[in-house]
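Form 7-S
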Amino acid sequence: MIDIAPLFKALADEKRIKIAALIGSRGLSVQEIAAAIDLTPATVSHHLAIMRAAGLVEATHEQYYSVYRFRQQPLLDALRDLAERPAPPDLADDLAK
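Output:
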């Protein structure tokens, strides 16, 4: 069973959702992300570290910069796992009423 809490905690911040949307289609550097959402590079780095720890972001080194990309697969796996989990017995009884 996948521990889904870290994934959802990583996306529980409006700024991190904006970052995910930005880097979902193409890779960007910290400076590019910071300029796009009006944050300091240090703040963007902090948010990216949280997302990276949750497995939602990967970084590649290109020339002098790290380029960050959003990884959809961990989130898709977590959602699939959540959908396939059986409902707790007491919840199933409550829903049947």
